[in-house]
Amino acid sequence: MAQMPEAMRPLRILIAKPGLDGHDRGAKVIARALRDAGMEVIYTGLRQTPEMIAAAALQEDVDAVGLSILSGAHNTLLPRVVELLRQNGMGDVPVFVGGIIPDEDVPGLKAAGIAAVFGPGTPLSEIVEFIREHTPLRHPIADRNSRLMSDYG
Amino acid sequence: MTGDTRPLHFTKRDLARLITGIENDDPHALRALREWYGRTGSAHIVGVTGAPGSGKSTLVAALTRMARSRGQTVAIVSVDPSSPFTGGAILGDRIRMRELFEDDGVFIRSMANRSALGGIARSTADVVAALDAAGYDLIFIETVGAGQAEVEVARVAETVIVVEAPGLGDDVQAIKAGILEVADILVVNKADREGAERAVSVLQAALDLAAPSVGTAGHHGYGALHRVEAPTASSTGWRIPVLKTIATEGDGVAAVLDAIARHRQYLEQGAGAQRRAQRLEQEVTIRLRDLLLKRAMQQIEPTRYHALIEACIARKLHPQEAAQELLNELARDDGRAPAG
Q1: Best A148, A149, A150, A151 residue to mutate vs chain B (most B CBs within 10 Å)
Q2: B336 Cβ neighbours under 8 A, 6+ residues apart
Q3: CB-based burial, B34-50: b 16+ in 10 Å, e otherwise
């Protein structure tokens, strides 16, 4: 348990709904489940563009991004989110997806950098477990610290 | 510590990670903050508090849009409660700020209060300091939905806006004793709703009742002479405005932003120095309390500690006696072997 203090840091997860569909019940169920698992969930609501999602992920310094999408626009919107996160230096932040995704689209999304696709009926515990396993608890600033501190320290 | 007071040029990524570090007591982040403390102090820090559902997030978003149109950069720290059971939280204030996400001159950070009382998180002041050092002109702190005693934001903000809305039940009663007293600006939001006029007049009446004591604060006998009073507070006197807004439409928002600017001018004319001194004195006192408690808990023998708690449970000892006993023992230990 040498990593106790780091391990106790609450994970920060962004839950967002890209695209134009107006149902966020699923997203809210996930948000609550993650809250109940001790995570800090930033919930940004409906009709988010990939640009809005990436900007929120950046400013909130999240450990993972969860996207809920029912509209069928996943093949265009989701890879764009991954791309924008990479441009922001957040390529190591896992993106997981829930909603209605046809099986044949899953390999393409994974190739585009989506870490996991959770279809309807996925147990919430599976999603919680996935996040815990795929968010290496980053040291918040240590790797940037040398540059920041060298100028001002 | 350098004497440099220029703002730092962070990328948003660096700033976001620094804030995560501050929230988690990361020693690197706290050291950086100490180094940069000399660069803080130029932002105007505005607290926005009020009951849940009064429209704080929507008002902050509208104020931010207006401030941006006037050329100011804006940071928003939005605090929501953590679950006392799991420590988790749903931070949902961004829902009402969506049109600000992609504005390069806006930085929004959601914070869980991590079960701190008082409406903000323990590290909110330091997060605000980081945003200040990063050069944002205006920093809004939106508290958790506040009832009567959530006045901590007044310890961090220079200007406090209390947001009220008609139709929230016995809302005016709720703020009479507590957060009304820390308000520099009162806003009745949702002013298109029934009861808005009444809310305004009740608030105005409450202010009129409170006003005379401001003018005569210096004349209440000997004690008052030694009290730390802002001399300008009684001479020039800040008149707390009661403003109506419909934040969703942007109505009245310009007047609130004007009042914020006027309050800053008022602070700069002298009252601010006094308030800042009081705030920092409190800040140092609170941090000293935390450090003393931390040191004490490290020095106290757990077995001794639990024995005294047991005595309290058995009602053989009053909790005050137990605490006093622990303090006496610490003082004796300090006398024998001074702690490092």
Answers
A1: A148
A2: none
A3: ebbeebbeebbbbbbbb
Q: Tokens for A14?
A: 């962004």
Query: What's B180-219 look like in SS3?
Result: HHHCCEEEECCCCCCCHHHHHHHHHHHHHHHHHHHHCHHH
pLDDT higher than threshold 80 for residue A148: no
User: Which amino acid appears at position A20 of this protein?
Assistant: L
- In three-state secondary structure terms, B2 is coil
Domains delineated in chain B: 12-272 (3.40.50.300), 300-336 (no CATH)
Would you call B6 an interface residue with chain A, using a CB distance cutoff of 8 Å?
A: no
Q: Say yes or no to pLDDT of B329 above 50.
A: yes
Q: What is the CA radius of gyration of chain B?
A: 22
Contact flag B24-A9 (C-beta cutoff 8 Å): yes
Q: Where do the domains of chain A lie, and which CATH numbers do they carry? A: 10-152 (3.40.50.280)
Judged by a CB distance cut-off of 8 A, whether residue B2 touches chain A is: yes
Burial class of residue B234 (count of CB atoms within 10 Å of its CB; 0-12, 13-18, 19+) = middle
Q: B330 in the Ramachandran plot: left (φ > 0), alpha (ψ -120 to 50) or beta?
A: alpha
Query: For A52-99, how does the pLDDT look when each residue is reduced to its tens digit (9 = 90+)?
Result: 999 999 999 999 999 998 888 888 899 999 999 999 999 999 999 998
What sign does the dihedral B160-B165-B169-B172 (CA atoms) show? Answer: positive
Burial of B286 (0-12, 13-18, 19+ CB in 10 A): middle
Task: Find which of B22, B26, B39, B136 to mutate to test the A interface (most A CBs within 10 Å of its CB).
Answer: B26
B190-238 pLDDT, tens digit per residue, is 999 998 998 888 888 878 776 554 433 333 333 333 333 333 343 458 9
User: What are the residues whose beta carbons fall under 8 Å from the beta carbon of A119, sequence distance 6 or more?
Assistant: A98, A100, A101
Residue of chain A whose alpha carbon sits nearest to that of B39 = A152
